[in-house]
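Standup, Tuesday
Yesterday: got the pipeline producing structure tokens again.
Today: sanity-check two examples.
Blockers: none.

Example 1:
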Amino acid sequence: MLPDSIDPEIVRLFPSVKTGVVESGPWRIPLFFDKSFGKNRGCIRLRRYIVHMAQMNETKEAMMTKTNQIYQDFEKLIDKFPCDPEIKERQKDQLDKYMMEFIDEVALLIAEGDATQIY
């Protein structure tokens, strides 16, 4: 079920492709990042993990490697599903926007030193 606050353009931009009940298509990207999903978005656990890495004095390089791994996985997902080149570019632009918001959010939580904060 989609939250009422999700932007309809995002719904059109990232089609849902399911394998049984598991989402396997580009819709995984907004499910992971979009703040409309609140505490149900997938990045909550990754965000907590990266903040915990900072608290355990992991290097910034290690935290960026983990974040970049997720970014690359989603880039591959976009490339995997055929669509118009213009739409593919818009999907990648939105992924970049989601990643920047995520990095800003994590940086703020690291500065506050709170891995448990949900929002």
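Example 2:
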Amino acid sequence: MAFENTVLVRGDQGYRISPEIKAFTLRDLGFALNNAGAFVQTNMLEPEKGFSASRKLKITFTKDLTAFKISLLSGNEAINIDIFSNPKDKVLVEQYRFFMKQLIDRKVIETIR
């Protein structure tokens, strides 16, 4: 998935970068800088399974904070998954929404209506 300034998550709504985004807010939220200077955060959607087995939410912002991508990944981070189509994944959706709400509340991203 390429970096974009608006992202549509399959099965969910769209998101865009807030004009009020700040690098220090990303650091406060637990984002880390990778070797390319991008801000990356990987959250477990199934914490009881441990990091390597849990399905994950991975969010990456470019170093200039003008583009980002959101990925819902399998445990081994090899494939994108859809957590919204299976009713058994209700807990994963709740975890996902919790993490996204933090980003919205801290003015990192906004929803697209």
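Quick observation on example 2: The longest strand covers residues 39-44. The beta strands are 6-8, 14-17, 32-33, 39-44, 56-61, 68-73, 109-112.
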